[in-house]
Amino acid sequence: MKKAQGISINVIIIAAIALLVLVILAVLVLKGGTNVNEETNSCIAKGGKCTDGWCENDGDQIFGATGCDDSMVCCKLFSLGGEE
């Protein structure tokens, strides 16, 4: 007659610790992802500059950019010799 073999308590403890570590890593990665989204949508990252309410040329406004005050807009930078 064979004895039934079950999962040892050591395997259960190791699996529980591994699951806890994976959950903590997932939370950290997802929480850090919001900063990446904010940085990539910033006015400067999109090649713009915050200006007082209007852009020099029509169509130069970058919509959806973040980082400017409420009274300011994000305008494209056009400079032949580099950034202003």
Describe this structure in words.
- The protein is an alpha+beta fold.
- It has one domain (9-76).
- 38% of the residues lie in helices and 10% in strands.
- The chain is built from one helix and two strands, in the order αββ.
- It has a two-stranded antiparallel ribbon with strand order 1-2.
- The protein is rod-shaped.
- The termini are far apart.
- Mean pLDDT is 80; it is low at 79-84.
Residue share in β-strands:
5-15%
CA-based shape: rod-shaped
By DSSP, the count of extended strands is 2
In whole angstroms, how far apart are the ends? 85 Å
Number of domains: 1
Radius of gyration: 26 Å
Low-pLDDT sequence parts: 79-84
Strand order of the largest sheet: 1-2
- Integer average pLDDT: 80
How large is the count of helical segments? 1
The helix/strand class is alpha+beta
Tell me the helix content.
25-40%
Order of helical and strand elements: HEE
> Major sheet, described briefly?
2 strands, antiparallel
Which tags fit this structure?
disordered C terminus, 10% strand, alpha+beta, 84 residues, two-stranded antiparallel ribbon
Which SSEs are present, and which pair or pack?
Layout: H1 9-40, E1 48-51, E2 73-76
Antiparallel strand pairs: 1-2
Could you provide a short overview of the structure?
With 84 residues, the protein is α+β, with helices and mostly antiparallel strands. 38% of the residues lie in helices and 10% in strands. It has one helix and two strands, in the order αββ.
